[in-house]
From TrEMBL:
<dbReference type="InterPro" id="IPR016162">
    <property type="entry name" value="Ald_DH_N"/>
</dbReference>
<dbReference type="InterPro" id="IPR050740">
    <property type="entry name" value="Aldehyde_DH_Superfamily"/>
</dbReference>
<dbReference type="InterPro" id="IPR015590">
    <property type="entry name" value="Aldehyde_DH_dom"/>
</dbReference>
<feature type="domain" description="Aldehyde dehydrogenase">
    <location>
        <begin position="18"/>
        <end position="477"/>
    </location>
</feature>
<dbReference type="InterPro" id="IPR029510">
    <property type="entry name" value="Ald_DH_CS_GLU"/>
</dbReference>
<dbReference type="Pfam" id="PF00171">
    <property type="entry name" value="Aldedh"/>
</dbReference>
<protein>
    <submittedName>
        <fullName>Succinate semialdehyde dehydrogenase</fullName>
    </submittedName>
</protein>
<keyword id="KW-0560">Oxidoreductase</keyword>
<dbReference type="InterPro" id="IPR016161">
    <property type="entry name" value="Ald_DH/histidinol_DH"/>
</dbReference>
<dbReference type="GO" id="GO:0004777">
    <property type="term" value="F:succinate-semialdehyde dehydrogenase (NAD+) activity"/>
</dbReference>
<comment type="similarity">
    <text>Belongs to the aldehyde dehydrogenase family.</text>
</comment>
<dbReference type="GO" id="GO:0009450">
    <property type="term" value="P:gamma-aminobutyric acid catabolic process"/>
</dbReference>
<dbReference type="InterPro" id="IPR016163">
    <property type="entry name" value="Ald_DH_C"/>
</dbReference>
<feature type="active site">
    <location>
        <position position="255"/>
    </location>
</feature>
Amino acid sequence: MSSPIERVPKRLFIAGQWADAASGATMPVDDPATGQILCHVADAGPEDGRRAEEAAVAAQEEWARTAPRTRSEILRRAYEIIISRTDELAMLMTSEMGKPLAEARVEVAYAAEFFRWFSEEAVRIEGAYGTLPDGRNRMLLSRRPVGPCLLITPWNFPLAMGTRKIGPAIAAGCTMVLKPAPQTPLSSLALAAILREAGLPDGVLNVVTTSHAGELIKPMLRRGHIRKLSFTGSTQVGRTLLAQCADTVVRTSMELGGNAPFIVFDDADLDTAVNSAMVAKMRNMGEACTAANRFFVHTSVADEFAARLAERMGSLVVGPGTEPGVDVGPLIDQAGRAKVADLVADAVERGAKVLIGGETPAGPGCFYPPTVLTGVDPGSRLTSTEIFGPVAAVLTFDDEDEVVRAANDTEWGLVAYVFTRDLSRALRVGDRLEVGMVGLNTGLVSNPAAPFGGVKQSGLGREGGRVGIEEFLDYKYLAVPV
């Protein structure tokens, strides 16, 4: 029987057809656990981007007229196909980005749920009707799809970030060009095949895999046919894309970086705090924008919390995600691992103590051990940088105002975590934190039914929840004389 990698298409998906890049170019897909090449996929150039854009534009008018129930049923069928292929999709994801199979299976379920959620939202797009206050006109308010969309997804959650953007676009009646991360194109190509099987019409979704995104994206935004950009990735790239969108006033959703504070007060349940820290820090090897980055722990419990966290981190098994019993897979590539190692070295040079981990292992692959640092200088680079690795940096605090100031002292504002038994304090601190999401006594906030997004330089707009579809809809107001 062939493997999931052998079965997934390796070509571009444009206007319902699988096609080679116009230049014939391909790019490698690497296994971060071994450094070996898994396969090659088509490497799109500007001409391929133009063809994908034209296919989306050509399909938009008819797709916008499609009955909401039809769009809903396509999403529901795709949800069911994804669930039925959980093991295959999980293996594909683990192969191209490294996360352990158990985590990959969880992501498959998470990804599928976006399709189920938006299949239900597709039939609940409502307008309004009423008489205006002056009595001269009636107002007829309807919702319309914003138009062709460009969707750009990251490598860390390759399936879920695709469904989180594609689901509401389909539900709203928008056509799309999807540009996945070059490290993880296989999950997106598999998703395109599933949607085709589920009955999605030709041209509604187009997928271009490429190693030189700028050459495709910049002209696509400049031509003015793309009316919506949804991007998940770094704040630096987000700023560049926002500038490019300005010329043609493209509507944007930006889910950018994070620097999540994890705050443990003196009255916190330490069992809950440590268990939640393992989730908030180690989910996806720490390669998540929601990952706990700065652990602020009250001085009175800091030593015990750090010791217990180090014990738990030290018990994790590091290895290839495909092997049984592995808890922590490789980081995405050598550059990602080098960044983490440099951040740890900087903190140690500034006086931090390594309780566990902290040494780059020899051998193949991009592995880095779970690491706990205490006595971290607030000026260390890892306190002001998105670590994107399995490193917990523990700092201490003495009072509420102090820790709120420290937690808010960052350009980012995606998520925060607060641990205390005092409900009043939890709500008070939650309100004061400059973030879009807060986990109160929990290390996991992501859910398809909840709005995901941040403030400050963590982005614009929200994905998921009842508001997720709003990002893909415009209002149209008709004035009708009484």
